[in-house]
Design brief:
about 140 residues; rod-shaped; about 0% strand; mainly alpha
Length: about 140
């Protein structure tokens, strides 16, 4: 039983099934101008101005964030430079204070004097020299 041969408009039915997407597209194209014409030119202009205003506000906000971030970066760079200078000064101070001449001058200011090798007494502690075992004593 052939369904197409019994139906008098069989070829039309096949075209309608195959072009349902095209029909919907054509109908949507017809509806779009109706939608724009229903809105009206004044409403469309107001919506356009609002949309452009929103975009301008977002742009200005983004620019403000960029400026703020740039200022923070500059502040951090200035802090880094200051800390680097302080670090260099401390390194120089440590190098100066560890020099033998500075140590001798500071000791002289405190009233200390170099030891005379004839007045030095050497004390021999066998436990300090060995590993501390009690069995090594004579």
């Amino acid at each position: 039983m052939n369904h197409q041969s019994t139906h008098p408009h069989g070829s039309r039915q096949r075209r309608a099934r195959g072009s349902s997407g095209q029909t919907w597209l054509a109908n949507s194209r017809r509806r779009f101008p109706l939608l724009v014409s229903r809105i009206g030119p004044v409403t469309l202009a107001v919506c356009s101005v609002l949309l452009m205003s929103l975009m301008a506000i977002l742009y200005l906000y983004q620019q403000g964030q960029a400026v703020t971030t740039n200022q923070q970066i500059q502040t951090l760079r200035n802090q880094q430079t200051t800390l680097q200078r302080q670090n260099d000064d401390l390194v120089n101070t440590i190098a100066t204070e560890q020099s033998p001449a500075y140590v001798a001058a500071s000791a002289g200011k405190m009233g200390l004097e170099p030891a005379n090798p004839q007045n030095v007494q050497v004390v021999n502690n066998p436990q300090a020299q060995g590993n501390g075992d009690q069995t090594n004593q004579p």
